[in-house]
Amino acid sequence: MDFLEVLAKISKYIPGVKNPKRHVTLNEKILWTGIVVVIYYVLTQVPLYGIPKVTTDYLAQLRFIFAGAAGTLLELGISPIVTAGIILELFVGSKIIELDLTSAEDRAKFTAAQRTFSIIMIIFEASIYVFGGRYGRVGEVISLTTASLLFFQLFIGSYITLLLDELTSTWGIGSGISLFIAAGVAQTIFWETFSPLKDKYGNYIGALFALIGSGGAVWYREGYPSMVGLLASVVVFVVVIFLQTVQVEIPISYGSVKGMRGKYPISLLYISNIPIIFASTLFADVYLISQMLWSRFSTSTNELLRRLVSLIGTYEVTETGRLSIKGGLCYYLTSPYGLHSAMSDPLRSIIYTVVLIIVSVIFGVVWVELSGMDAKSIAKQFVSSGMTIPGFRSSYKVLEKVLSRYIYPVTIIGAILVGVIAAFADFFGSIGRGMGILLATMILWQFYQSLAREQIQEAHPLIRRFMK
Amino acid sequence: MSLPNKIKDFIVQCERALKKASKPARNEFLKISGICLLGLTLLGVIGLTIRLIANLLSGSPV
């Protein structure tokens, strides 16, 4: 029995959501999806019991990817589930674990193993958070009892997230993970636009109320959400939807059915938001490690160590106790947010944009190879399903050559576009952050397609039986 | 093939892919934008409401 089979067997003993035994109507699916959204939002407002008042949110840079909310039951967000999924997918994609995801049995085994591995990641991340000092050193700032209580709360919060994800994918529409990401970004956009509350400095949180409160004068505020930022968010939203619908259509025909023709669409954003997720995760991790190194060694007596740490990143402690980047390599890996900071150091803006694009392209090309979206895999799928491209022999070598003429250019063009959009959205201080809006827009687009598919199946039971 | 030629060849492929790309029809684009905006608004309104209630109950901005 290999590693995956062990995980899959354990999964049977983990309470989960039962698959429906009957057809779930579209209205029921919409209802369940709505219930999941409300539960998710409520959980992000339930504070953890036992934590000190002021703490640093290590996942702040990644919050729009990992969802959840700092200092609440969903502190870890979807990070354990996403991390577990990526690790197992990389094991399978790189053939470390032999699995044929096209067969139903192996796919079921992979899904079961992923559940168990998510639980393991929840335990692992919760332990790192609590006993790694996120809420203060155990034994100094918080007692061991409080630490254990915090661990238990984090575990329960993340386990409920896992169940909500299962509930969405079995009884609802689309994937729970995507739903939480989109929900997090949507809440941020509406909160930073329409919140009537003021912060402790007496400034309105919502951009609209700041504009109204100033009699229509304040269109831009540095360090605060603004109407210019909202306009930037709308522009990103529209541009992404347009790019998402631009497609390269390759004519195809079916060898077994004479005269039957079709088109194989390759979206201009072929690799969707994957490059941005990996690029921003990489930058945030480097930033996180650099913060820890600087906090630990910036006052070290060892000259060489001090210089090395400063080379990676130097910081300044703000009034609220947070670290603000001042120099070093990390200075160029963090996005200048807002027109003022983008224009006050144009070199940083240019370097950040170029680095983001390069990293995006690299991740894009790697992901296409690893996830079976490359020309060879698509060509094999064509041949195995009897499809071919008119005017070319039906061998997968020939099809691979034709497909690679479009797949690789589109992958690189898509990665560049996504990188440019994300960078410029941040420069204009867009509400919800550039990468967040990119993600939310693409997720909503995928939900729209799932909804359309569900409607077709609802209206035509014959098609539903065919697609099952 | 030398690197400059590879780059030139790749740029030609990019041009070919962009030329072949089809843009969405206007009403299709407007329909999709509307539905996605509706989805974002639905999520945003629910999220804003719950967060406002939580803030008012706890009395401190979360």
Biggest sheet strand order of chain A reads 2-1-5
Helix content of chain A: 55-70%
Radius of gyration computed on alpha carbons of chain B? 24 Å
Quickly name the level 1 CATH class of chain A. Answer: Mainly Alpha
Task: Say how many strands of chain A there are.
Answer: 5
Protein chains sharing the most extensive interface: A-B, 47 and 35 residues
Query: Residue share in helices of chain B?
Result: over 70%
Number of helices of chain A: 17
Which second-level CATH architecture of chain A applies? Orthogonal Bundle
Largest pleated sheet of chain A: 3 strands, antiparallel
Largest sheet of chain B: none
Secondary-structure map:
The complex is a heterodimer of chains A (468) and B (62).
Chain A: H1 3-11, H2 26-43, H3 63-66, H4 79-93, H5 104-131, H6 144-171, H7 176-194, H8 207-213, H9 227-245, E1 247-254, E2 261-267, H10 274-297, H11 303-312, E3 314-317, E4 323-327, H12 339-344, H13 346-370, H14 375-384, E5 387-388, H15 396-427, H16 434-459, H17 461-467
Chain B: H1 3-20, E1 21-22, H2 26-58
